[in-house]
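Re: weekly structure request thread

Next one in the queue (638 aa):
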Amino acid sequence: MKNILYKALIMICLYPVALQAQKPQAAAGPYGVFIQIDKLLHGPQYVVERLETGKATSKPDWQPVCTTDKGPISARDLVARLTLLSAKNSMYEIPDDSLTALLYTRYRNASHVDSLGAYGENPQYLEALGLGFLDTDVLQGKRYDYRVRALESREGVFYNPGTVSVPGSKLATTAMAVSQNANGQVVNIQYLLKKPNPYIAGARVLRATYGQTDFAECGAEWGFRKGKKDSLFLVVTDPNVRRKMLYSYVVYLKDFLGNESGAADTVTIANLRPQEQIPVIHYINTVSHEAENAIAVSWQLSSTKDLRSVEIWRSEKFDVGFQKIGIATPNDTVYYDNRVEPVQGYYYQIRLNGTYETSGESVKVSGMLKASRPALIPPTHFQLKTSSDTLTFRWQPADFDTHGYYIYFAAGQTDSLQRYSDIILAGKELKYQVPAKKLALGTGYRWAVVAVNTSYNMGPMSEILYSQPRFPERLATPINPEMIPQNDRALLVWENMRSIDPYILGYIIERKAANEKAFKAIYRQKDEDNNRNNFADSTVKQGVRYTYRIKAYGLNEMCSFSQKPALHSAPCYGPMWFRTSKWTCPGTGFLLRWKCLWLSAKKTVLASVLLRFQVIYLAPHFRIRTKPCRKTGPTFTG
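Done, posted below.
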């Protein structure tokens, strides 16, 4: 397998390219330092000198380490050189005679202007052609400078490839496993190389028997293969394996100078014959079994040989959350999952446990148990607690398989109950609150709770509860109260507020006399006259001052007083007696004369009061009394 690498690198020599101007390069590793003299083919010989840096000397101590040979004169000469160089580095190989002869023919016929780039970068062949040198006489942990000059050039004309440290740095190339297979006799693994390095010479393959031995080199064969778009693959073949064993592999890439890359990902593979591998899953299916109250998961396999068990996994989500819910024997083809809820979607997959390995995840299939169980038991102990702003309902659970509850309501006694709430899950506290502001004012409601089970069947209603009507916190205030003077009574009128506030049942009139401290109700409207907005008070006494106020009332003893709490009625006066009177008889009747002292004493008050005098004849005396009158000017007759 290793010859595949060298054949691929040597065949590059068969394709000449144009001249590329490059400088000498130096690379270090555990096997030494390789100086690549980047000059044209068929060029002169070169002298390579080395200087160990860090020494305290008066002047640089350059030491000659190599004088390159002239190019090979024959194919046999090239084979001899390659054979001698194979002992210099463990990564070098004894050349193939026919391939070397073909390479020499191409080298001999190549133009002098063809450059080093046309011959690849294999250090063994570069040194055999006189275009490079592997310096193995170096110490680990030291730093060195190199310089190169043509053998026939004058002193002082050098090319410096730079300073190197021994050993070199770790390879940046990584290997990623892309495929693997086994047939019971050979294990094959293919890796994709990322950031390939031209000095990569091979790989170090380590193997461990799973759970039994540590990793150690196994002597597996390896080779490189070119892929599409300049990709490079490492192919590892391990024939030293036993059937029905589980192996783990780790690969380290290695260059010609002994530098290694980091470890590739660990690959675990069972070395089984095709008939010993995990069976193929032909199909997976789910069926709802209402009689068993379960979802039946069934499958069909290509074979049950070397199969230990079948694992059933389930999740409520398609992508995540799968958990193992059961194990079936190899001969089983169906599994009943009775830990499910009706009308709830589930996702299933199966995983096969073979004698030597476990299969990956299968495809996912969905399943659902149809609704089948009836709901027969209603919720109990349905209670209602009313506060100023909230109606709180509580009840006891209905049945073991209850999924949730709904609150139903209706306005009044004749309307049918309708759903009010969203579903109230059974796992939570069995309580539901209704804000009072969402209910209509002045309306009483009926309430009930209904259970719905896991089959989404509705159960019977609970007992019906009644909520008291809610009324406004205050009534509209009577406005514009006015007093209209009338004979022998006080007429009080106001704006009727029932058109604005329908919750006003009527009005109460309260009165307070001037010598009283508190208002007293003198009138309360009845149902038949609740549209009236006036009141005539005929119980007033003349000469007494009164204050009235109007109060609207509704249910629950709610009241609202008028904005003007006090109105004064006009004062009324009673009959007046006259102390002195004279009468004469002029012959045609009686002529009475009197003096009204009361008028003179109260004329400021009586300026707007008109009096009517009435003469009453009581034999053998006359008596005079006064009455209020609206006539203009006093007229007295006798």
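Confidence is low (pLDDT under 50) at residues 4-21, 115-119, 598-612, 626-638. DSSP finds five helices and 42 strands in the chain.
Next request, please.
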